[in-house]
Amino acid sequence: MQLHILASGSTGNAIFLQLGGAKLLVDAGISARRVEKGLRAVGIDPAELDAILVTHEHSDHVSGLPVFTRKFGVPVFARRRTWDAFQPAHHVEAEYRRELGNGLEIGGVRVEPFAISHDAAEPVGYSFRCGDIKCVVATDMGCVSERVERDIAGADVLVFESNHDVAMLRNGPYPEYLKKRILSNRGHLSNLDTGRCLARMDKKSGMHVFLAHLSQHNNCPELALSTVSQVLERQGVRLEQDVYLHLAHPCDTVSFAL
Ligand SMILES: [Zn+2]
Ligand SMILES: [Zn+2]
User: Fold this and answer.
1) What are residue 99's phi and psi, to 5 degrees?
2) Where are the domains of the chain?
3) Residue 211 CA to ligand 1 centre (angstroms)
């Protein structure tokens, strides 16, 4: 298993995952050129991707799709209502568009989308299973439902949102309507929410968690890491033993192999 988080945050998201015989990209919310460069830098030929899996239609997840698909001809999977909600600027040509059902099998990998709570048409997270390895990508969530808790349970590798620090957001520069949106059940997860969810979820010992989609205005990496660590430790979770915490980066590739 190889994971390369090419970018993560409100300025763009793209996550490459190689599992079994499948080479997959979750979202392409940075320029096609950056996706291509990022993949080549870790030795992946973009034309070899089996699929791009879209979580939702927000620009920071899809802006690179039109150029990337035209150049490399990779099929793109998204929920029907997500396709319907695409902005014209993110238009993907019909020949590359695929409707995402309840699950698919790619190169021996079982890919399962699951509903998340976010202010988009039909947003999803993804779980990937191959043999006894399970990876999950779940960002852009205002809250964690019981369903999501079941979907992330037992993951070996979890890319999970830790968007903001509530005090930084409340006292920060964002207009009131945006603060409300982010804090709502269909917004984004705070560091504290993330810590609590990780503490109570059904964990596989030694799991690796990548804190992702950190806000550049309302969070900082050290704070996300320390808040989540503190919540976990208070609940008796042993860091670097039960759970390994890592940070995704807004523009530098973060790589991991298992
Ligand atoms: Zn996002
Ligand atoms: Zn979003």
Assistant:
1) -90, 130
2) 2-252
3) 13
